[in-house]
Amino acid sequence: MKMIATLAILGLFIGNAVCDCPNGYMRHDESCYKLYASTKATWAEAFMYCQVFGSDLAVIETAREQTFLEGFLRREFKSGMSDGVWIGGTDALVEGEWQWVKTGVSINQQEFRHWWPGEPNSSGALGEDCMDLLHHEHYNWNDERCDIPANFLCERA
Ligand SMILES: [Ca+2]
Ligand SMILES: [Ca+2]
Ligand SMILES: [Ca+2]
Predict the structure, then answer these.
(1) pTM of the predicted structure, to 2 decimals
(2) Domain membership of residue 29 as a residue range
(3) From the CA of 143, how far away is ligand 2's center (Å)?
(4) Which keywords does this Swiss-Prot/TrEMBL entry list (predicted)?
């Protein structure tokens, strides 16, 4: 009996180890997420930061993932953070053709899309080619100027 209990506990540990995310990451379903809340970077810098640390700017593929991230970012939000949080979508290559950089998947063709009403609006003379989640738009999707320093969200398997 003791043996079985020990094996069960061991199994629990191994099971947990497989599911564990690296330090500072939050798990949800098959992914680990890290919000860089005290680092602000342009979209391109944020893209590289994520890669250096073995991840990618977040790719949002389902309503379930979106709902989780809205809650996660709301909980993590503190004064001093940027309104926007970079994620991994851009239309920098062809205006209006949004894609997830990590997968190359067309966002326009993706079944799940979650733009805030009126977005993407390519606002301003320089336009907006990088995707972020705006605190004041309840972390729905927005297109933003790529050179604005903002916090960012990385995702890894
Ligand atoms: Ca994802
Ligand atoms: Ca654009
Ligand atoms: Ca916009």
Answers:
(1) 0.88
(2) 23-156
(3) 7
(4) Disulfide bond, Signal
CA 147 remoteness from chain centre: 18
Q: Is the dihedral of CA 134, 137, 141, 146 positive or negative?
A: negative
Where residue 75 sits, what CATH number does that domain have?
3.10.100.10
Q: What's the gap in Å between 29 CA and the centre of ligand 2? A: 31
Q: How many domains does the chain have?
A: 1
Q: Which ligand is nearest to the CA of 59?
A: 1
Interval 94-132: pLDDT, tens = 999 999 999 999 999 999 999 999 999 999 999 999 999
Per the CB < 8 A criterion, the answer to whether 25 and 33 are in contact is yes
